[in-house]
Amino acid sequence: MSPRACVIGDPIAHSRSPLIHRYWLAQHDIAGSYERQHITAAALPAFIAELRAGGWRGCNVTVPHKGAVAAQVDELTPVAARLGAANTLWLEEGRLRADNTDVAGFMDNLDQAAPGWRARAGAATVLGAGGAARAAVHGLLERGVGTVHVVNRSVERATQLAQAFGPRVRPAAWDKVGNALAGSGLLVNTTSLGMSGQPSLALDLSPLPAGATVYDIVYVPLETPLLAQARARDLEVVDGLGMLLHQAVPGFERWFGVRPEVTKELRDLLVADIEG
Ligand code: ATR
C-alpha cells in the first residue's frame, strides 16, 4: 500500500495542509496520499488505534486535539513535552511518537522573512496566551530573547503562561500594551483578531521603536490590518503563511523520507488559494 498521511481536526474543511503536502508529493514524484480527516473528540481514540495499527504513516493534528494527542502517544519530543501539545505524529519502531513543529515553523518563518530580527529584539511582545502564544514564547526564549511581554485580554491566562515559562516572561493587561511595546524590537500577534470574520486588532503601534519587526500569525487575509499599519510606519513585517508552510516540513520528511522545500511557487499557490 502506498504511504498515507492526513490532517485531523474538528472542524477540518478549512485546512490547507493537503494543498501543501500534495504539492510536495507531486514535486518529488512520491506515490503517497495526504487526506483531510474530520475527527471529533469522541472519535480520537479510535483514530489513534488506527495509527498504532499502521493504517497511516502519520498525521498532522489541528484544533482542538493538539493537547489530547500529546497525552495519548508513546513518546514526545522535548518541545512537545514542554508545551504539552503536539501537531505531528508518526510511527517509529512500533512506537507512536509526536512532535510540536509549530515552534520551528514560527522561528523558521521569522528567520527567513526577517533575518536581522534577533539583533533588534532584546525584548519582544506577544499578543495572546493560547497554544500559538506558547509556541512563540518558547521559540523566542530558546533564541535568547531577554524579556517576552505577554499581553492578553484575560490577564489570568497571561499570568499562567508566564508562570509556566519563568521570570523572563512578563504578563500584562491589554490596556498596558504601550509600555510593553516601547521596549520591544519584535511584536507578534497570536490572537485571532484581524482574521477575516473576526474583530480587527486595534493597537497603537507608535510606542514600538523604529526598525521593529511586526509578525502576524493570522494569514487570512494575508495583509491583516496590523501588518498594513506596520507597513505604513515603515516597520518590517512578517505574515503568517510562512509559519504554516514551515511547520509542515518535518512531518513530510518523517512520513515520506524527503525533506521538502518551502518554495516561492508553493507559497504563491497558497496565496492564490486564500485570495481566490
Ligand atoms: P490558539 O491555541 O490558536 O492560540 P486559543 O487558545 O483559543 O487559540 O487562544 C486565542 C487567543 O486569542 C487568546 O489569547 C484569546 O484571548 P483570551 O485568552 O482572553 O480568550 C485571544 N482572543 C480571541 N478573541 C479575542 C478578542 N475578541 N479580543 C481579544 N483577544 C481575543
TrEMBL record:
InterPro entries tied to this protein: Aminoacid_DH-like_N_sf, NAD(P)-bd_dom_sf, SDH_C, Shikimate_DH, Shikimate_DH-bd_N, Shikimate_DH_fam, Shikm_DH/Glu-tRNA_Rdtase
Pathway: Metabolic intermediate biosynthesis; chorismate biosynthesis; chorismate from D-erythrose 4-phosphate and phosphoenolpyruvate: step 4/7
Enzyme class: oxidoreductase
GO terms of molecular function: NADP binding; shikimate 3-dehydrogenase (NADP+) activity
Positions of the catalytic residues: 66 (proton acceptor)
Catalytic activity annotation: shikimate + NADP(+) = 3-dehydroshikimate + NADPH + H(+)
Classification via CDD domains: NAD_bind_Shikimate_DH (cd01065)
Domain SDH C-terminal: 240-262
Domain Shikimate dehydrogenase substrate binding N-terminal: 7-89
GO terms under cellular component: cytosol
Binding site for NADP(+): 128-132, 217, 240
Ranges for domain Quinate/shikimate 5-dehydrogenase/glutamyl-tRNA reductase: 123-191
GO biological process: amino acid biosynthetic process; aromatic amino acid family biosynthetic process; chorismate biosynthetic process; shikimate metabolic process
Name of one Pfam family that matches: SDH_C
Keyword line: Amino-acid biosynthesis, Aromatic amino acid biosynthesis, NADP, Oxidoreductase
Binding site for shikimate: 15-17, 62, 87, 102, 219, 247
Entry EC no(s): 1.1.1.25
Function field: Involved in the biosynthesis of the chorismate, which leads to the biosynthesis of aromatic amino acids. Catalyzes the reversible NADPH linked reduction of 3-dehydroshikimate (DHSA) to yield shikimate (SA).
Family per similarity comment: Belongs to the shikimate dehydrogenase family.
Family annotation (PANTHER family): BIFUNCTIONAL 3-DEHYDROQUINATE DEHYDRATASE_SHIKIMATE DEHYDROGENASE, CHLOROPLASTIC (PTHR21089:SF1), SHIKIMATE DEHYDROGENASE (PTHR21089)
Subunit structure: Homodimer.
Protein name listed in UniProt: Shikimate dehydrogenase (NADP(+))
Species this chain originates from: Chelatococcus reniformis
Classification lineage: Bacteria, Pseudomonadati, Pseudomonadota, Alphaproteobacteria, Hyphomicrobiales
Gene: aroE
